[in-house]
Amino acid sequence: MVSTVQNTDVTQKDAERAVVIAVTSHAVFEFGADGDEAYEVGVAFPLMQALKRVNECLLKENPTESLLFDVVLVTTDSQQQQQSSRIISSTRHYGLEVSRFCFSSEEDFVESLLQHKVQLFLSTDRNETSQASQRGVPSALLDQHTASCSSEQLRVLFCGDSIVQPDTGPTPASRQAAQSFSAQLGEMRRAFGMLDSPLSFILVTSRGGRESCSSALQTLRSRGISVDEAYCLAGAPRGPILSLLRPHFLLSDGFSGPEE
């Protein structure tokens, strides 16, 4: 059973051009004690603010811009769904730009993502992101580090290793969808200059040397993506540099997550 509530407080996006991102409500809010007050913010709160800022800057550059982020807030927990009005009011309280609220069962949530034509699914639940990826929905896993990310600039990290040697895990449909999503991000990025952009791309290649990094750069450029920063770790663990770079999420060709 899937129920969708449209947010009348925000301008609805162009269905043909918008980049649809679904985020789970348990990543955006901390569900605590009962009451009517707004929920405390969760780990994905800076991400939500950064997505909103990209939209604002795109519209500032071009008031008729239709290539914008279209955010869907997904709730699968039955107890949380009983607090649907509080979820909606909390979103309004913090001024988050959410177009639709989707309430579904844990069994049907992937179907709801497909119905809404979601191009990236974000959750703190590894099982949820795995299920979505297996059905062809590009997914990224959020963790506690997301809470310390910038709210002024959306920072997206591309995993160079999966670009040079794609993982056998993601389905071909998921890889293709992830590449299409990345190309749309690249188009968004081209709307801004080199300095003070609200959208930044980072490439990190963990394995191999300069050749691997160069190959990943060339592949991304062929998809219309120019990165702002590139790092070749040559086998060094990527955890320390990720803590410095603080990307909101990691993208590979299909499925991604924080440092293993």
Which descriptor suits the 3D outline? globular
Main pleated-sheet profile: 7 strands, mixed
Unreliable sequence segments:
255-260
Q: Count the helices. How many?
A: 10
Mean pLDDT: 88
Q: Over all CA atoms, what is the radius of gyration?
A: 18 Å
Strand order of the biggest β-sheet: 1-6-5-2-7-8-13
Percent strand equals 15-25%
Proportion of helical residues: 25-40%
Number of strands: 13
Instruction: Give the termini distance in whole angstroms.
Output: 34 Å
Order of helices and strands: EEHEEHEHHEHEHEEHHEHEHEE
**What structural class results from the helix and strand content?**
alpha/beta
Describe, in plain words, how this protein is organized in 3D.
The chain is 36% helix and 22% strand. The protein is built from ten helices and 13 strands. The protein has helices at 25-28, 45-61, 78-81, 84-93, 109-115, 126-134, 160-164, 172-189, 210-222, 239-245, and strands spanning 2-6, 19-24, 29-30, 40-41, 69-75, 100-104, 120-123, 139-141, 154-159, 199-205, 229-232, 249-251, 255-256. The protein is globular, with a radius of gyration of 18 Å. It starts with a strand and ends with a strand. Residues 255-260 have low confidence and may be disordered.
